Amino acid sequence: MELSQALEQLAALQTKLYAYQCASSSLYLDSVTVAPRDTAQGRGVALGVLAGEQHKLLTAPAVGQLLDFLDQHAGELNQLQRRQMEELGRNYRQLQRIPADEYMAYAQLTNEASDVWHKAKENNDFASFQPVLERLVAFSRKFAGYYDPDKAPYDALLGEYERGVDMAYLDRFFAAVREKLVPVIHAIGKKEQPDDSFLFRHYPVEAQRKFSDYLMEVLGLDRSHCAIGETEHPFTLEFNNKDVRITTNYDPHNVASSMYSVIHEGGHAKYELNIRDDVQYTCLSGGVSMGVHESQSRFYENLIGRSLPFIQAIFPRMREFFPAQLSDVTAEQFYRAVNKAQPSLIRIEADELTYCLHIMVRYEIEKQLIGGTLEVKDVPETWNR
C-alpha cells in the first residue's frame, strides 16, 4: 500500500466516525430541546445501534493494519497526520477492550438516564433516579478497568476528561485552592452585601429570549453558524466549526440565570467556531480538553460578562428589554448585584467564588462513588452534609 492510499483511508475512516457522531449528537440535542416527553425508548434503540456501528467501524482488523502501516511511516507524516494516527490508535486500543454489547448498552443507558433525570429533577425525587445512577456508576467502574486496568478506577476515568490528571494531582490542587478560598468566602460573608433583589423581579420569558439574541450579537456569534435553543440544563454542542448549538433555560424570576448561561455557553461556542479548518471531520476537531473548554466559557462569563465595562456597555439596551424591571437600577448597581458572593445549591447559578466549592464537593462524591466507599443511596445525605 502506498502512503497516499493509507492517508486517504485514514481520512475516510474519520469522516465516517464523524458522521455517526453527528447522528448521535442530533438525537441527543433533539431529546433535550424539542422531543416529546415520552420518546426515550425508541431513541435509545437508535443510539445503541449507532454506538454499535461506531464500535464495529473503529475496531475492525483493517483499522489496526492501517494504524500499524502509518506507524511504520511515522517519519513521513506531518504533525497533524501523526496526531490523528496517535489519537485514533488510542481510541482503537481502548475500544478493543470494551465488548460491543456493553458499549451499545451504555449508549442506551445514558439516553435513559437523561430522560429519568429530567423527570426526577422536576419532581425533586432522587429515589426515582437512584436505580439508573447505580447502573451508570457500575458501568463507569467497569469501563475504567477497560481504559487502564493498571490504574485506580477514578484515575482512569479522569484521564478521559483531562489527560495526565489523576487524584493525587487534584487532591493537591483542590487543597491549595480550598486553603486560600474558604477564608475569603467567610470574610466576604461578614461584610454588608449588595442589594440584588431586582434580579428576581418578574422578567417575561419572551423579553429574555430577545435579550439572549442581543447578547449573542454582542458576543459576535454569527447566527448563520450558531443557533440557540432552550433546555433544562444549558450546554453547548458542536458539529463542526460552522455549526454550533447553544442552549439556555429561562427563569421568569431570575434574569441573571439565563443571561450568564448565554454568555457562558457563548464562550464555548466562540472556541468551537474558531477551531482551524484543517482538523474538521477528524479526531482532532473539538476542544483540546474539558479544562481548556471550560476556561473559555468561564472567561467570557466572569472576566468579561461580570466586569463593570461590559455591564455599562450593555445596560442601556438591557433597560430597553426590561423597562419596568430596571427603571430604578443603575449599571453600577447591576454590576454589584451580579458579583454578589453567597452560597448556592445550583452550580451554574453560583457566584465566581463559591462555584469552585461545588466542583470540590462533586469531586469528593465522585471519587467515593467510583472508589466504592460511597453508595448511590447515600449521595443525598453526603451532599447535604
TrEMBL record:
CDD domains referenced in this protein's UniProt entry, alphabetically: M32_Taq (cd06460)
Pfam families reported in the protein's UniProt record: Peptidase_M32
GO MF entry, a single one: metallocarboxypeptidase activity
Gene3D superfamilies for the chain: 1.10.1370.30
Keywords recorded for this protein, A-Z: Carboxypeptidase, Hydrolase, Protease
The keyword Protease appears for this protein: yes
InterPro entries, alphabetized: Peptidase_M32_Taq (IPR001333)
Top-level taxon of the source organism: Bacteria
Signal peptide residue numbers: none
Biological processes annotated in GO: proteolysis
Official protein name in the record: Carboxypeptidase M32
